[in-house]
Amino acid sequence: MGTLQGSNPDNNTIFELVRSLMYAITPPSNNPFTSQFRFMNIRHLGIYFPVDATFMSIILRFDQLVSLKVTPYDSNHDFDYYAELQALLDRAPLLYSLIFRCWSRTSARITPIEYSNSSVRRLDVQNIDQCYNPEQCVALIRSSWALQCQVLCIAVENRLSILDLINAMTQLRLLNVLCQDDPWNTDEHNQSSSKEDELIGWLQHHVPATFAIVRNAEKSFNYDFKSCYSILIWIG
Known about the structure:
By secondary structure, the chain is of the alpha/beta class. The chain has helices at residues 55-58, 82-90, 134-141, 159-168, 183-186, 198-206, and strands at 4-7, 13-15, 20-23, 37-39, 44-49, 67-72, 97-100, 122-124, 151-156, 174-179, 212-219, 229-234. The chain has a 9-stranded mixed sheet, covered by helices on one side. A 3-stranded mixed sheet has the order 1-2-4, with no helix packed on it. It is elongated, with a radius of gyration of 20 Å.
């Protein structure tokens, strides 16, 4: 994973060559553990929120971070960790990819609309175990993400929201989308099915011929779907 580079005056072991890290403390509160490890150059970080008080001291800097995956400890509880996550985003000037997983269905916040980071170009909210309804899609379109996102992975309730996202997000180059009214998913088709792909046909009728639209060969996972093969739309 990495090599030991030395120790600081407090005898905390510092790793400089570790590039990927998954951080989780269980239980999420009242944990007496205090790590002596320190990481300097993390580029890929997975983190379970909320974090404990030692997190910011374990990872000494975030200026090399390019991808961040955020997951709650328990998606059945609405932990409010907005300030913690935004503080991390504010310290990550090179962050390219932001991924959310298993968002609480009872959360008062719509991930990730209330967060901000000007360097993010890839946003993944597809596997948060819920779909964006039309109103939430409009809120996403009106957020700062619409002006900077080049790759978006999302699950939506209505196919018309796909067109709204394409038309409003001017920097978008690739849309990876699950749609709740997609007959392919409802009927549990597979990639070898000879039946016409109705949603792809509908999209081809509503977008310019320069767009490339295919069914994803890799299965996605979302609580609202039984069989989840998303659609990939290259915008050109």
